[in-house]
Amino acid sequence: MADALIVIDVQNDFCPGGALAVPEGDAIVPGINALMDDFAAVILTQDWHPADHASFASQHPGKAPMEMTEMAYGPQVLWPDHCVQGTHGAAFHEGLATDRADLILRKGFRRQIDSYSAFFENDRKTPTGLEGYLRTRGIRRVTLVGLALDFCVNYSAVDAASLGLAVTVRTDLTRAIDLDGSLAAARAGMEDVGVELA
Question: Which residue from 31, 62, 134, 181 lies 20 to 30 Å from 1 (Cα-Cα)?
């Protein structure tokens, strides 16, 4: 049974100096690179938003980043503009060993819907195609690393578990935003569905 390493959103805008920087987001890069050779497959995800993405606070007059709004699919955090397609902020961190990737999966490119998970858009119904890729390669176990632990890593891990995959999150190779207790809630939610926090 093959194992895959899924590296979530290690992009400039999520690293120090970026538009939505996760504290010490760049510190995990060497450890992620060192882990890649232990896996049969390496998959990188990349937030890839149009400039007018509906999750950006700039698209909602009178709203500020980190405020909540209601979308057709439910509650949504409004973010600073980040990971805009083709910009430096959307590019992978320069230290990340991208040449080792078998697949680069872009998400969040549909204007009207955000996408935290590597498996589904935030409507929880629209698939990214990653499940099919893993199944056709015979991969049933995944290890997740990257940014941010309490959002995109968390959603990806929970979805992977719901799809019947064995899931490990290497918490030493993630960092969190921790927005209003989001980190504690994410850890509890992952453990509830059988995700191993290593």
Answer: 31
Known catalytic membership, residue 152: yes
CB 124 within 8 A of CB 51: no
CA–CA distance from 197 to each of 56, 145, 185, 187 (Å)?
31, 11, 14, 8
Mean pLDDT of 115-134: 96
Please tell me the predicted confidence (pLDDT) of residue 180: 87
Catalytic residue among 13, 15, 83, 152: 152
Nearest to 139 by CA among 165, 117, 119, 118: 165
Q: Pick the catalytic residue: 9, 26, 47, 159?
A: 9
Q: Which one is catalytic: 13, 15, 47, 107?
A: 107
Helix crossing, 182-192 with 154-162: angle to 10°?
20
> Can you give the pTM of this predicted structure?
0.96
Q: Is the pLDDT of residue 23 over 70?
A: yes
Residue type, 63: K
pLDDT band at 143 (very low <50, low <70, confident <90, very high): very high
Calculate the alpha carbon distances from 118 to 6, 115, 143 in Å.
9, 8, 13
Burial 75-94 (b: 16+ CB within 10 A, else e): ebbbbebbbbeebebbebbe
